[in-house]
Amino acid sequence: MTAAMRPQASACPACSAAPAAEALAAAQEPTEAHIVLSLPTIHCAACMSTVEQALNASDAVRSARVNLTMKRVSVEADPELTAADIIPLVEGAGYEAHELDTTAITATQTDRAGRELLMRLAVAGFASMNVMLLSVAVWSGAEGPTRDMFHWISAAIVIPAVAFSAQPFFKNAWTALKAGHLNMDVPISLAILLALVTSLWETSLSGEHAYFDAAMALTFFLLTGRYLDHRTRSVARSAAEELAALEVPRAWRVSDSGEEQVNVAELRVGDILRVRPGGRMPVDGEIVEGTSELDRSLLTGETLPVFAEPGTTISAGEVNLTGPLLVRASAVGRDTSLHRMADLVAVAESGRSRYTSLADKAAKLYAPGVHILSALAFVGWYLWSGDLRIALNIAAAVLIITCPCALGLAVPAVTTAASGRLFKQGLLIKDATALERLAQIDTVVFDKTGTLTAGTPDLTNLDDFTRCDLEIALALSQGSAHPLSQSLTAAAREAGVTPADVTDIQEVPGHGTQGLWQGQMVRLGRAAWVGAGSHAMTSAWLRVGDGPAQAFTFTDRLRDGAEEAVRALQESGKKVILMSGDTTAAVEALATRLGIEQWLAEALPQDKATRIEALTEQGAKVLMVGDGLNDTAALTAAHASISPASALDAARVASDIVLLGGTLDPIPDAIETARKATRRIRENFTIATWYNIIAVPLAIAGLCSPLIAALAMSASSITVSLNALRLR
Amino acid sequence: MNILTYLIPISLVLGCAGLGFFVFTLRSNQYDDPEGDAQRILSGDYDDKPKG
Q1: A110, B3 in Cβ contact below 8 A?
Q2: What is the ipTM of this complex?
């Protein structure tokens, strides 16, 4: 057999070598490009078909399928096609699209743990349905050999099913016991096992009460809770991975052989990189060629761009504004200042680690309580009746009744419902306890640049200029890609200004634009270049001939929903504070505009964190909303934290909740939803406790039949789940 | 009561068939996009020119 499988020896080695090499080459060359795009704005059936039709209309696209749950489209296309070719197609159809790094999201596609759990849940569901059917016959009066036979069949179904389905509980309980402490899984495992053992014993003695159905139903309900919990987490995790995947890390490396696009991970110290205007610095380093301006707002909170020329040191995360730059890398990847700062944050004590979740609090009270109760019942009955069989039966009944079915569902059902609702509003809950912490908030601290403001400038003093000056300014600004120029152009066009006849226009990267107007030199640009003093606000200066320099001043445009969010928070009685690394004048202006009374300007990253810690010590529960690297320490120190999706990766990692859309609107709603969710969790605990209070005395008194156990268990689980669903 | 010798195995077989079917749906990625599938069934588009 093996001999026949072996390829035949050929007389001509080249004859077989050539096709083999071709086959090898064909295998290595990708026959099809797999591109994944994130579509944050799709929400309905029409959206799906529009996007799919738009993509399928292109001949290069082989197939496109939208996943509405993940808000993604995956495209199989001809190998030469890149995401840059496809994005315009989707945008043409009217939807926002971003490329996703396929290597970063592969992990979510094979969610093996989730599938395994679902499989166990399915087996448990199947087994409990069948066993319940048999049990109904027993409850309705089957007797003698029929009852025994039903019990034996139940045992035959339940024992293998439990052995497969309940493994997660057994494993967790075992690890906890080995480490010498109790968790929720210890009483669960004990209840399941004890129920099985006593039932087997009872059945072998043709006893009346067997708890096979209870053991199985218990496993089923608890697995449901586990599965919900797992799903909420994996949805959050995959969305978080998606955010990381959105920043496809690429850089242009310049070498002797020319320019090539490389992955940031492949960069080495000493590499020369080209950073185009609008690009973000991929490394720490030094400028070797070119002049430009740098936007450091994400790192420091400053809104004023900084002048950059050869010799200026730059750090990763800064944005190049005007001219192309050549940069020599001095630190790459994990060694960049960006990553070092992110690592510092990890050392800071986080609001997250200080918090004990409601579920943990309940478990701490609950686990020892259950064991003591059932041990007491066992000892009491054994001493009173002297019958081991009765005592063991009672102990098993107590364990089953008190078993935390409802408790196991109480929290996951609510968090699933609440995070689903928040996800629809554009909020991604990253941390399991974030909802509970968010509900306790009484103080909200906002960062300025990039959080309350959108990071795009708005011209403020158009009216201070003569028509003639505006025409010159427009002529100079309209050709430039600098954000200030673009804003100036937009404002001037809106005011109906037509560009003056300026000739010889040239942009001097890093400085501004100049030209000739009626024989005079006209310049629009940085203060020093134009020959003017300085201004507290972000400004661009215009100078006509030898006349005085005049400043166009800009403020940051407010982020959508910023005013509404601040007002709603203040109306609901929360203290709103503004903290920024920007200049006092800029921060004060924004604070007055939004009606924020407390503000702090020129704050260093450490100041922000210290301020938040001071507030926490005074008993305030602080919610920090920020996006920059200078906010990360503060985000970590706060009781709960939110960052917009536009934030740096480091800031998103440090925060519990990520705002997926561009607006701040959902924040007040989110706090309200979190409150409701926490209230539901408490209600669920109360419901579960009442079921126990009613059923436990029955169990201890020995009056609890398997029927009562099954009813109590199912009824409490169902009420708890329904209560959680009210959040939707 | 002899009917039980048929009914119980039949119910078990039916249950197993259901379980097997569920395992099949799980294996063939039918739970990857529950929301999208729920919406897709309402879509009135017909794919007139399916790409091979």
Answers
A1: no
A2: 0.78
